[in-house]
Design a protein that fits this description.
Largest sheet: 7 strands, mixed
Number of strands: 13
Strand content: 5-15%
Structural class: alpha/beta
Order of helices and strands: HHHHHEHEHEHEHEHEEHEEHEEHEEHHH
Bound molecules: pyridoxal-5'-phosphate
Strand order of the largest sheet: 1-7-6-5-4-2-3
Number of helices: 16
Oligomer: single chain
Helix content: 40-55%
Shape: globular
């Protein structure tokens, strides 16, 4: 194990030597009580970190009523599998209704088609595969490229690696939105799609989707909007009077959108929606084989067998909250965002990057932001480190709208800045790792990461 990881053992393998350790299948089964007590011990410890709203993103709602709705739905659909629509036609109905509801939020009409996937990553992988296959068929493009803001989610780079697409990465402007002129210059005859985020993960800023869509239309290529975070916030934010630019199917050139129902849709994990403007594009997403030895086989998404529960739960949560429920949460969350942005503005060592609403990236010219983040970690906060420029962010959720959470964030932040200035780097933390990664070439960082993963997923260690 690299020395670098030694300090991380407590964080990533905290149960070593305490609870039962299983290295092979027991011959005699254990009692239900024994099994559940182990799970409960771990869950109880882990619940602490998110229940108090000290985690960025991760648990987007977590309220008792919603959790009990998840459990009720699971108890009704514990074995349902959408691979067999003849056995569970209910799942077809529920999935189509979720797709229709989400399309409705995003100015989609009855031409829109789509799927529920297992997450934002799967939605993005599918959209990129769809454009690759569509433009190979329509234009004979065999060396496809996508134009990608530097702030786009890693899932797009993963899609490029999986599907042999070349990512053409474009830098951002001073407000941390993609530079439209540079996008224009990056288009070649191999470009199959432009990507924009509403908003992006690192800075919470919204790319100028309208301008990007115009470029896409000029070239007759795809315009994909990553609304993983914004799909269930921006429509309500606009109704609440916030200044929200157009970002969805309202813009003519937008051809596909992913929205993560398992984030601000408040569904359980394993749920995202991918939408296409028309059935013609959607057709390139699905897999079919008519002459397989195992019979006629088709899957609209990546997986074969998958849980039907998440589809049913997504449908249930959307009906349970309704527009009014989403509006109330959005209102409280955006007010918390406004408060935090305002208060960070009063801390002279810190600055907010761009003009975000509820995902707030914080940097500094005076103090090392990673050291501030480490002192925040000591105070129980789980924030996200960002690179280029060095910064960290907090993605606000329902949990940050609970009493005193936003105030605690600001007072802990003030203390952490003070600690960073007075005491410098703490002995344990991520600051050295982030600091180092800023100077190392990408290959070397990847090598270290793989070393870490070898250790993390070694069942014998
Ligand atoms: C979370 C996120 C994704 C990826 O979604 P997963 O559900 O984690 O696979 C993609 N884009 C953005 C902007 C995100 O925030």
């Amino acid at each position: 194990m690299l020395d670098l990881f030694k300090g991380l053992e407590k964080l990533f393998k905290p149960y070593k030597g305490s609870l039962i350790e299983v290295k092979s299948l027991p011959y005699h089964g254990l009692s239900k009580d024994e099994i559940l007590s182990v799970l409960k011990k771990m869950a109880t410890l882990e619940d602490k970190s998110w229940i108090d709203g000290k985690v960025s993103g991760a648990v987007y709602h977590g309220g008792g009523e919603l959790l009990s709705l998840y459990n009720d739905v699971f108890s009704i659909f514990p074995v349902a599998n959408p691979l067999h629509p003849d056995v569970w036609p209910s799942l077809v109905k529920l999935e189509n209704e979720v797709v229709a509801m989400v399309a409705g939020l995003l100015h989609g009409d009855s031409n829109v088609r789509g799927s529920i996937t297992m997450g934002g990553t799967e939605s993005i992988l599918l959209a990129m595969k769809t454009y690759r296959d569509y433009y190979r068929d329509k234009r004979g493009i065999t060396e496809p490229e996508i134009v990608l803001p530097r702030s786009a989610h890693a899932a797009f780079l993963k899609a490029c690696e999986y599907f042999n697409i070349r990512p053409v990465i474009v830098d951002l402007d001073d407000e941390f939105r993609v530079d439209v002129e540079k996008v224009k210059e990056s288009i070649t005859r191999n470009t199959i799609a432009i990507v924009g985020s509403a908003p992006n993960f690192p800075y919470g800023t919204i790319d100028p989707i309208k301008d990007l869509a115009e470029i896409a239309m000029d070239h007759g290529i795809g315009m994909h909007v990553d609304a993983a975070l914004g799909g269930f916030v921006l429509p309500f934010a606009r109704k609440l009077g916030y200044d929200v630019p157009q970002f969805d199917f309202e813009i003519e050139g937008v051809t596909s959108i992913n929205v993560d129902t398992h984030k601000y849709g408040y569904a359980p994990k394993g749920s995202s929606v991918i939408l296409y403007r028309n059935p013609e594009l959607f057709r390139y997403q699905v897999y079919t084989i008519g002459d397989w030895a195992g019979g006629i086989y088709f899957t609209p998404t990546t997986l074969g067998s998958k849980p039907g529960f998440t589809i049913a739960a997504t449908w249930a949560v959307m009906l349970y909250l309704g527009e009014k429920g989403y509006m109330e949460i959005t209102k409280a969350m955006l007010e918390a965002g406004r408060y935090i942005i305002n208060e960070v503005g009063k801390i002279k060592e810190l600055k907010v990057l761009g003009k975000p609403l509820w995902i707030i990236a914080i940097a500094s010219d005076i103090v090392n932001p990673y050291v501030v983040m480490d002192y925040m970690s000591q105070r129980g906060w789980h924030l996200i480190g960002l690179v280029k420029p060095p910064a960290f962010h907090i993605a606000l959720t329902y949990r940050h709208t609970l009493p005193n959470v936003k105030e605690a964030f600001i007072s802990d932040l003030r203390e952490s800045v003070k600690d960073a200035l007075e005491k410098g780097q703490p002995p344990i933390g991520m600051a050295p790792i982030y600091g180092m990664s800023a100077f190392l070439p990408r290959d070397q960082i990847n090598a270290i990461l793989r070393e870490f993963i070898d250790w993390l997923y070694n069942p014998w260690d």
